Amino acid sequence: MSTLDGTVVAITGASSGIGEATARLLAGRGAAVVLAARRTDRIDTIAQEIRDAGGHALSCPVDVTRAEDLHRLVGTTVDGFGRLDVLVSNAGIAPISQVADLDTDGWTAMIDVNLRGVLNGIAAALPVFREQGRGHLVTTVSTAGLKITPTMAVYAATKNAVRTLLEGLRQESTDGVLRTTAISPGYVRTNLADSMPDATIRERIRDNMRESALPPEAVARAIAFAVEQPDDVEIGELSIRPTAQG
């Protein structure tokens, strides 16, 4: 029996990349998964493929900037599988640029998705975790917050805000109910560069991804490692990057 048999996991940003890989891996290890994203056709297809392979999966359209969407995700999960054990907050965008470019629309979008989206998930999931007496928040942050580089100041700021948020929440949750995990990937082969409006920056990031990026499945395995720990073990933070990444 897998350690994930019977575990119920909701995943945002599940239509591609890390989110999709995580849904497929956890379902393959026995978890019931609920895939959430804005691209309804993609999450419907992935959920059906998981079911066709013998797994348990549902899909739920979600825009993480909308608090009501996260409440609907949690409700769909509890209605469908009876509980929610883990919320993987993976949705994120990176319209990066130099601060002096004053891309205030990009700043707002990153704050809304990368930070507010995580807060919306916490607000929806935490009451369920408290009622159940257990729950786990796993959030995708970034090594961009560990090593600050030009063009990534605001993006890194949103990720570091989430890192700080999870640590504060962990310290407030000393009753053993809640576990928190911040997963910090380095370069991963995903569609993240698609959200970068500056063509020069976008191509530089894509070049880096082509040269040394990890497959999304590598990060999914790191998430699975954190989730599979017994309730009295918390993996607070885990960085995963290509060996060749500087």
UniProtKB/TrEMBL annotation:
Keywords: Oxidoreductase. This is NADP-dependent 3-hydroxy acid dehydrogenase YdfG. The keyword tRNA processing does not apply. The keyword Oxidoreductase applies. It holds the Pfam family adh_short. Gene3D superfamilies: NAD(P)-binding Rossmann-like Domain (3.40.50.720). Belongs to the short-chain dehydrogenases/reductases (SDR) family. It comes from the Bacteria. It comes from Kribbella italica. One of its GO terms (molecular function) is oxidoreductase activity, acting on the CH-OH group of donors, NAD or NADP as acceptor.
